[in-house]
Amino acid sequence: MQLLDLIGYAAALCTTSAYVPQVLRVWRTRSTHDISLKMFVVLVTGISLWLTYGILTSDWPLAAANSVTLMLASTILYFKIRHG
Q1: pLDDT tens, 9-34?
Q2: Which long-range contacts link 71-75 to residues 24+ away (Cβ below 8 Å)?
Protein backbone atom coordinates (compact mmCIF):
# COMPACT_ATOMS: atom_id res chain seq x y z
CA MET A 1 0.00 0.00 0.00
CA GLN A 2 1.34 3.41 -0.92
CA LEU A 3 1.73 6.37 1.42
CA LEU A 4 -1.07 8.26 -0.32
CA ASP A 5 -3.48 5.37 0.30
CA LEU A 6 -2.44 5.16 3.95
CA ILE A 7 -3.06 8.87 4.39
CA GLY A 8 -6.52 8.50 2.83
CA TYR A 9 -7.45 5.55 5.04
CA ALA A 10 -6.14 7.34 8.15
CA ALA A 11 -8.19 10.44 7.27
CA ALA A 12 -11.30 8.31 6.71
CA LEU A 13 -10.79 6.53 10.03
CA CYS A 14 -10.35 9.80 11.93
CA THR A 15 -13.29 11.67 10.41
CA THR A 16 -15.63 8.70 10.63
CA SER A 17 -14.75 7.60 14.16
CA ALA A 18 -15.05 11.17 15.43
CA TYR A 19 -18.85 10.76 15.40
CA VAL A 20 -18.91 7.66 17.59
CA PRO A 21 -18.58 9.43 20.99
CA GLN A 22 -21.34 11.90 20.08
CA VAL A 23 -23.66 9.13 18.86
CA LEU A 24 -23.10 7.16 22.07
CA ARG A 25 -23.76 10.21 24.22
CA VAL A 26 -26.92 11.17 22.34
CA TRP A 27 -28.11 7.56 22.43
CA ARG A 28 -27.61 7.30 26.21
CA THR A 29 -28.86 10.72 27.26
CA ARG A 30 -31.43 11.38 24.51
CA SER A 31 -30.23 14.98 24.81
CA THR A 32 -29.46 17.00 21.70
CA HIS A 33 -30.00 20.46 23.17
CA ASP A 34 -26.56 21.78 22.18
CA ILE A 35 -26.60 20.34 18.66
CA SER A 36 -27.57 22.57 15.75
CA LEU A 37 -30.36 21.08 13.63
CA LYS A 38 -29.48 23.23 10.61
CA MET A 39 -25.84 22.22 10.79
CA PHE A 40 -26.66 18.51 10.92
CA VAL A 41 -29.13 18.79 8.02
CA VAL A 42 -26.43 20.44 5.90
CA LEU A 43 -23.82 17.93 7.12
CA VAL A 44 -25.97 14.87 6.31
CA THR A 45 -26.74 16.36 2.90
CA GLY A 46 -23.04 16.89 2.22
CA ILE A 47 -22.12 13.39 3.37
CA SER A 48 -24.87 11.99 1.13
CA LEU A 49 -23.40 13.88 -1.81
CA TRP A 50 -19.87 12.60 -1.03
CA LEU A 51 -21.26 9.07 -0.84
CA THR A 52 -22.98 9.51 -4.20
CA TYR A 53 -19.79 10.91 -5.69
CA GLY A 54 -17.79 7.96 -4.34
CA ILE A 55 -20.23 5.47 -5.83
CA LEU A 56 -20.44 7.21 -9.21
CA THR A 57 -16.64 7.46 -9.50
CA SER A 58 -16.11 3.92 -8.15
CA ASP A 59 -14.01 5.32 -5.32
CA TRP A 60 -14.92 2.55 -2.90
CA PRO A 61 -12.83 3.70 0.09
CA LEU A 62 -14.52 7.12 -0.16
CA ALA A 63 -17.93 5.52 -0.53
CA ALA A 64 -17.34 3.14 2.38
CA ALA A 65 -16.12 5.86 4.72
CA ASN A 66 -19.01 8.14 3.84
CA SER A 67 -21.60 5.39 4.20
CA VAL A 68 -20.47 4.77 7.79
CA THR A 69 -20.23 8.50 8.49
CA LEU A 70 -23.71 9.01 7.02
CA MET A 71 -25.12 6.33 9.29
CA LEU A 72 -23.53 7.93 12.38
CA ALA A 73 -24.46 11.52 11.50
CA SER A 74 -27.99 10.45 10.54
CA THR A 75 -28.39 8.82 13.95
CA ILE A 76 -27.56 12.12 15.62
CA LEU A 77 -29.92 13.97 13.27
CA TYR A 78 -32.69 11.47 14.03
CA PHE A 79 -32.34 12.04 17.76
CA LYS A 80 -32.18 15.81 17.24
CA ILE A 81 -35.45 15.75 15.30
CA ARG A 82 -37.12 13.27 17.67
CA HIS A 83 -35.96 14.66 21.01
CA GLY A 84 -35.20 18.26 20.00
Answers
A1: 899 999 999 999 999 999 999 999 99
A2: 72/16, 72/19, 72/20, 72/23, 73/19, 73/40, 73/43, 73/44, 73/47, 74/44, 75/23, 75/26, 75/27
